[in-house]
């Protein structure tokens, strides 16, 4: 088994996410708020369920100015490709 990085092709995974632009000092609070909102939304919507462990997607890193991150929870597939969310902060793909 190699300890070197490798590229693995995977199928698309639908997910629910909150996007935040933060400084490094604001990052811990954004993680707490964002995951609480994502988990709350998933718990309130019985059409979808979590499908894998949560993760943080780094969309843009502009150090030391800011980070643009998505706080993500992969979700189950539904009969429709998109699930409508009540909160404008929540993205469900």
Question: What would the keywords be for this entry?
Answer:
93 residues, alpha+beta, 4-stranded antiparallel beta sheet, 30% strand
Architecture overview:
The protein is an alpha+beta fold and 93 residues long. It has one domain. It has one helix and four strands, in the order E-H-E-E-E. A four-stranded antiparallel β-sheet has the order 2-3-1-4. A hairpin with a 3-residue loop joins strand 2 and strand 3. The chain is flat and about 40 Å long. Mean pLDDT is 82; it is low at 79-84.
Q: End-to-end span in angstroms?
A: 34 Å
Number of strands: 4
Structural class per helix/strand content?
alpha+beta
- The pLDDT mean sits at 82
Alpha carbon gyration radius: 15 Å
Summarize the structure.
This protein has one helix at 27-44, and strands at residues 15-22, 55-62, 66-74, 90-92. With 93 residues, the chain is an alpha+beta fold. Strand 2 and strand 3 form a beta hairpin.
Topology readout:
Layout: E1 15-22, H1 27-44, E2 55-62, E3 66-74, E4 90-92
Antiparallel strand pairs: 1-3, 1-4, 2-3
């Amino acid at each position: 088994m190699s300890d070197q990085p490798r590229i693995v092709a995977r199928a698309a995974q639908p997910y629910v996410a909150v996007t935040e632009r933060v400084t490094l000092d604001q990052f811990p609070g954004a993680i707490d708020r964002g995951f609480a909102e994502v988990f709350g939304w998933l718990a309130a919507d019985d059409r979808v369920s979590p499908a894998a462990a949560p993760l943080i997607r780094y969309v843009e890193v502009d150090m030391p100015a800011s980070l643009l991150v998505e706080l993500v929870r992969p979700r189950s597939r539904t009969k429709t490709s998109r699930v409508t969310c009540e909160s404008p902060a929540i993205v469900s793909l």
